[in-house]
Each structure stands twice: as structure tokens, then as C-alpha cells.
Hints:
The chain is 50% helix and 6% strand. Helix 3 (84-92) crosses helix 5 (139-162), helix 10 (258-302) runs antiparallel to helix 11 (314-325) and helix 11 (314-325) packs antiparallel against helix 13 (371-391). The strands form two sheets. The protein has a four-stranded mixed sheet with strand order 1-3-4-2, covered by helices on one side. The chain has a two-stranded antiparallel ribbon with strand order 5-6. Strand 5 (204-208) and strand 6 form a beta hairpin. The radius of gyration is 23 Å and the shape is elongated. It has helices at residues 11-14, 19-30, 84-92, 95-103, 139-162, 176-185, 193-202, 222-226, 233-255, 258-302, 314-325, 329-337, 371-391, 401-409, 411-425, 429-433; strands spanning 4-5, 108-112, 118-120, 130-134, 204-208, 212-216. By secondary structure, the protein is mainly alpha-helical. It is built from 16 helices and six strands. Zinc ion (ZN) binds next to strand 1, helix 5 and helix 13.
Amino acid sequence: MRKCIDLESQPGFQNIYAPQMQQAIDRGLQGHSGDPKNIDWGYDLPKPQTEPIIRPGDIPRVEPKPPKPLDPNMPDPVNTTGSYWDTLFNRYAIQPVRKLINLFPNPTIQGGNKSLGSFNGFTGKGNWGRIKTPKGYGGYDIHVLYHEYGHAIDHIGGMLENDSKNPLKETSMELLDGMQKDGVKLGWIINDSAMYDYIEKNGLHFVIKGSRKMNIAKGSNKAKAESKMKPGDRFRIIEYLVTQVKKDLNKATLSKDPVKIRRAKDEVKKINAVFDADTKRQKDAQDFVKELVAISKQMKKSMPDYNETGMNEHIGAFTDIIDAISGGEIYDRELAEMSQNIYNLGSHGTHPSGYYSGRQTYAGSVRNHNMDTIMEFRRAEVWAQLFLFYAHDGGKSKNTQFLEHAKKTMPETYKAFETALQRLMAIPQSVIDDSKFHRHT
Ligand SMILES: [Zn+2]
């Protein structure tokens, strides 16, 4: 489980900032429900027994060995502080990325325990951001560092090009169109507006799982409706609506009013279409994860340094992309259905419930209060995961199958990512050295 972007750095979060709230949210993000029947969330999910994967929780901390001397002929060795982090890039990052790291101002990096993994764009030396990342957990160190450094490049690139510290000006803004196109094509984004139209028109009042009351007032828009939903509730509401519109139709039939009957029939059709689209999406996503699992297995077999290079974590990065693009809705249904399945997103890696939507976290608070914040998290994480795939050289066997799979399956998103990254790489050193960009130091 990773927070990735510090909560306190988010505009949406500042609106609700209070120490108790911070504590509650953090507890929720770290959290384990304690109920063994309850699926937990995030990177620390218990993985199904059939597929033992080394999770960060299983990796003992070992003090990293002093780095081996670099090949003196290696072009563009990362040389920021002569630190452990430089070594991780010099051992496994491709040359254009090493060059970019040298070109750009560097974020502050703090190493620590295995549960770390965050980027805060509002602090750090020179205000170029601060990464907190694990140190001493083998390949997992590489995995988290490259991801978080992806956030840093996104943020610093945005600052350099826009002379702005507005998080909404990050470079990853440019991914949104591609994410929408690929997401629709892959079936990860569906049109569920009929569900929210129904809620706005009628309100929603029913008892969930025999105990909890769901009360959403008539006239509530999507944001308001979502803010009432706990993890899993989105799908529970769709299920409920399928029965409810049938009841509405029976009532209309009794009234013998042809207008009411026609409207009720129309509603049945629309809500059933949402249910069917949602079900198809769940299957499409599982089929996609099936391919990812197959790729992982091939890599595990063929790569002598599969764990050592952190490539064993790439599948979780990919399922997190699906989680982001689907707005957490696929994962939400997994939580509602509580079925343990190796092809679930939650079996590999997602962000916590409520991270990619305006719905509640497990702690019962709402992280995102508007669409801008929601989309910011979605594209920032997709950017960071793509950067991870892009930056990694694939170890001894130069295995970059996940990168190739991302290019093939998400061509629009990838094209936007690569175009933006290449533009950042071409920023002249003189522009970066220009004093106006160092006004924060
Ligand atoms: Zn992240």
C-alpha cells in the first residue's frame, strides 16, 4: 500500500484539514480492517495462496552494500549527490533517464522503512519536491524510487515549463485525453450516468447488507452522491437499482398511466445497461490481468534477476494503472463482491479505496471533493507507473515486456507520455540554469 502523493499537498485535502482528520485518513490508508473476511486494500493485500509473490512485508531490511564501482565508460552516470539513489539509477535506469535526472533540478530524497512511498511537490530543497522511499529492501527500493521519481519529473517538468507551482500544471495533464480514449476502448471506462441521473431524480434510501443505511437526498449530483459511498457501495447501489427500477415499473403498471409506464420501462433499460456494462468491464479487466499474470510468469522464468531488479512489482504497477483509469470502480466491485481471485486488481496492486474518486476511504472520509483533484490523482499515478516502466532497463536480460505491453494496449496514453517526456528531455540546460527557476531556493 502506498500513499504516493502526500495528502497534505493536495488542494482538495486542505479544505478538510484538521489534525484528527489527518490521523483518521492516515489510519485508513495504512489500515487493515482487522476483519479476516474483509479484503484489505493497496499494495499490502494478502495475495492468493496459489501465487506466492514476495511482498514488501516479507522482505527483511538489509543495509545496502556499498556500490560497485561504475563502468567508467557508461554514458551519463547519475551524479547528483553520490548517494545510494544515484546507484539505483546507474544500475537499472536507461541512459536517457539518467541524462534527464542530471539535467533537471533534483528532489530531496529521504530513505526509510518499507511502508514509505510518497512525493510531496510543496516542499524539499529548492521546493523541487520531496520523495520518501524505502531503503534496504532489495528490488522494492528500485520499484518505489522510480515510481516516485516519476512524480518528481512530472512536477519539476510542469514547473520548468509553466513557471508554476500549481499541481494542476503538471506535465501529466497531457495524459488525460489518451487515458479517456484508451480507457473506453479497453472497456475500463463505462457510461454509468443513468445511475447518477436516477439518484439525482429520486434520491436513494435503502439498507445496505442488512445493517447500514444508505441515504442520498433527492437532487444530489454525482459528487454529492459519491461522497456518501463507502468502499464497495458503488456496485451495491447498482445492484440495488436493478431491483428498484423493476419495482418502479410494477408500480407504474398498476397506475395504468401510459406516460409513467413508458418512463419506467426506459429506466429499467438504462439501469440494466449500466449493470451489464459494469459486468462486462469486470470481465474485461480480469482478462487483461490474466495476460499480465502470464507476462509475469514468463519474466520470472527467464530473468535471473527478476526479484533483485524489482520487476516482480511491475504487475502491481500495471493493475494500478487500470485502477486509476477506471476511477477505482473495478476495484470497488471487487470489494463489494469480496471474491478472492488471482485476476483481481486487488490481488496485485491498487491505490486505496477513494484515491481515484470522490467516494469515501475506509476511514470514512472523502479525499477528493472535485473532478480536478480526482483527475489529478488518476493522471499523476498513470504517469508515475509509465515512467517506472520506461526508466527500467530490464536488468541483465533487458526484459521490458511490461513497457511493451503498455505501448501496445494503451497507445494513446503512451504516445502522450512519450511526447511529453521527450520534450522535457530537450529543455536546454541554459533554460534550467536560468535564475528565475531558482527563486524558491
Ligand atoms: Zn504514486
